[in-house]
Design a protein that fits this description.
Order of helices and strands: HEHEHEH
Structural class: alpha/beta
Helix content: 25-40%
CATH class of one domain: Alpha Beta
Largest sheet: 3 strands, parallel
Shape: globular
Radius of gyration: 18 Å
Distance between the termini: 29 Å
CATH superfamily of one domain: Carbonic anhydrase
């Protein structure tokens, strides 16, 4: 999977904390107002769980041709299978019927730039 992204070219295009929160709250209100229950339950239609990197440049559903309700999506830094991911996958499989797990990594992952010192500081 490849990625590309752009950053604001001018300082006045930078997003403030307040404008981000306002934008998200407004978008959620619009979504909630238009929402109609699709009649789905929590079980993914394709019986698959996808584990992937949290990189904001990745639109997993578009890249994999997925629609709402098709899969469970688990994302974290680097798309790493951690204890928490295993817990979520166990619930996905045992309680919600998934039968397959797809692990997605991508080019230009920011985790490649993390130093061992930084990793050590996180622990």
């Amino acid at each position: 999977m490849t990625t590309s992204a752009s950053v604001p070219a001018r300082p006045e295009d930078a997003i403030t904390d307040r404008s981000v929160t306002d934008r998200l709250v407004t978008a959620n209100g619009t979504y909630a107002d238009a929402f109609t229950d699709p009649g789905m339950d929590a079980r993914p239609v394709l019986q698959v769980a996808v584990v992937a990197c949290m990189d904001a440049r990745l639109d997993l559903h578009a890249a994999l041709g997925l629609r709402l309700g098709d899969c469970h999506t688990l994302r974290n830094a680097g798309g790493v299978v951690t204890d928490d991911v295993i817990r979520s996958l166990a619930i996905s499989q045992r309680a919600l019927g998934t039968r397959r797990v797809v692990l997605i990594h991508h080019t230009n992952c920011g985790m490649q730039t993390i130093t061992e010192d930084f990793r050590h500081d996180l622990e």
